[in-house]
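I have been asked to look over a protein record a colleague put together. Alongside the sequence sits a line of tokens, each denoting a local backbone shape. Please read both lines and tell me whether the tokens look consistent with the sequence. Take the sequence as given and treat only the tokens as open to question. I have pasted the whole thing underneath without changing anything:
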Amino acid sequence: MSERPERSSFARDAGKGFSQASEGLALAIGFVVPVIVLWLVGRAIDGWLGIDPWAQVVGAVAGWGVGFLYVFFAAQRANQ
């Protein structure tokens, strides 16, 4: 049987870089998605109640808070 050749250091470094990039992308998406979703919910509430733009503002701020907490706790898990 033939043995598998050892991965080059370049391939190992590239794999590590892709792993770190995917973690960063997941954090970015985890921050942005709650802002967009809660803003859209606020927009729907504004249209339903006719209180434009207050529910949008509250939704966006709440989404920012949720996204911040997601990133904060993900960073805490990464440091353990």
User: Anything to note?
Assistant: The chain is about 85% helix and 0% strand. The mean pLDDT is 88. The helical segments are 9-49, 54-79. Residues 28-79 form one domain.
